Amino acid sequence: MAETRLAPEPGGPPDIEGVVALIGRVFVEYGWVFYPAQELADLFAFERHYSAPHGALWVVRRDGGIGGSVAVERLDAKTAELHRLYLDADLRGRRLGRELVETVLAWCAREGITHLVLWSDTRFDRAHALYERMGFVKTGERVLPDDPNDTREYSYARPVAMTARGATMTFRDRLGFDAGGRPLEGALEWAGRHRFHHVDFNADAGPNRLDGWPADRVRTLRDTCARHDIHLGLHTSSAVNVAEFSPHVSEGVEDYLRANVDLAVRLGCEWLVVHAGFHFSSALEARKAASLERLKRLTGHAEHVGATLLLENLNFEPARAEVHYLGHTVAECRPYFAQIQSERFGWAFTVNHAHLVPEGIDGFLDAFGVTRIGEVRLADNTGEYEVHLNPGEGTIDFKTLFDRLESAGYAKHYSMAFGGDADKLAAREKLAALR
């Protein structure tokens, strides 16, 4: 039987005993004196340091215990500190340390944190090598007074948004693309070759379908993303009606959404795009209620497994159409953002959809700001009907859009959702030139 792959999982107060035991084993390994109450005061005050929105904890579970850990604590609006990166000796050298740090960086990106800092004992040579490979720069040194283990520590820091080469991620680097249903292996290979760092994909059909992800494939794809510094997101289908309430079909929608969340976690996806569903010009209030309650339940599951949902504002359909998407206006989106107050529920802002309704792009940003945006989706249109044109072929003013988003503090990625490969390569240069 294949070995179960170990990976970071969200931790909480029930894991503190296991994390303390792990750190104790590392202290024994180094021949140090271990006083948990003195060394680990932050863990014993978990709610103050690591409960949302203050921070987070992740663990690597093995054999009923804890074999690895990492934590992060918010210091201010833009800075966080990494803590408690530990692995049992036999788990080192298996990329788990990198995965734990990447998990912290992903949390920082979601939370709008721009800089990550840490302190590390000067004797943790392997950890220092890892930090420096991942773009951290040594910034100082300190001696802990009256410490029984004669501890000296190095300080490290790095911007959260960086390329694999260690440079701060530029606006151009933040322009990613939606691969749709294209086989993920090919999409990632193309992304790596052309130095894209953000990729969305769909898992409904073909090689990507939800039931086609054995452990070895998942491991290979995660390694590919790490090698090319690619941040991955999963985009559910808007054809699956999140507002469904019919028996049997409704249960199928629940299963579909949870399966997408679970796959996103396995692949290390940093976001999962979801939708509010659609209605048939009747039973509108029942559809809205079913949609909202379903996304509340899904957010609870996402909180449990460590996934992040992004609700996409969908497109307008002509008034005479029978079928209409929910969540295509500010008024229809507002109940979701008002009633689902979770760090695991954000917004995929699709600018071309906003361009189709009277409030427009500015109306959406006036209503919701940028703090909950996890992805900005890009395509052009003429403001008349749903179509995904290349930038410049419609009437969206992308320079004004970028100026407003960036000046408001938006620092996450953009996803180009139009055209073929050549169109995306050309558009990246055109859009980057606007900044």
Q: Could you please describe the fold and organization of this structure?
A:
Helix content is 37%, strand content 21%. By secondary structure, the chain is α/β, with parallel strands linked by helices. It has 2 domains: 8-159, Aminopeptidase (3-Layer(aba) Sandwich); 172-432, TIM Barrel. An 8-stranded parallel beta barrel has the order 8-9-10-11-13-15-16-17. Strand 8 (175-178), helix 7 (184-193) and strand 9 form a beta-alpha-beta unit.
Binned strand content: 15-25%
- The whole-number mean of residue pLDDT values reads 93
CATH architecture of the largest domain: Alpha-Beta Barrel
> How many structural domains can be distinguished in the coordinates?
2
Highest CATH level, the class of the largest domain: Alpha Beta
Rounded to the nearest angstrom, the distance between the terminal CA atoms is 52 Å
Largest sheet: 8 strands, parallel, barrel
Major sheet: arrangement of strands: 8-9-10-11-13-15-16-17
The assigned structural class equals: alpha/beta
CATH superfamily of the largest domain: Divalent-metal-dependent TIM barrel enzymes
List how many beta strands DSSP finds: 17
* Topology-level CATH name of the largest domain: TIM Barrel
CA-based shape = globular
Low-confidence stretches: none
Radius of gyration: 23 Å
Q: Into which percent range does the helicity of residues fall?
A: 25-40%
**Helical element count?**
15
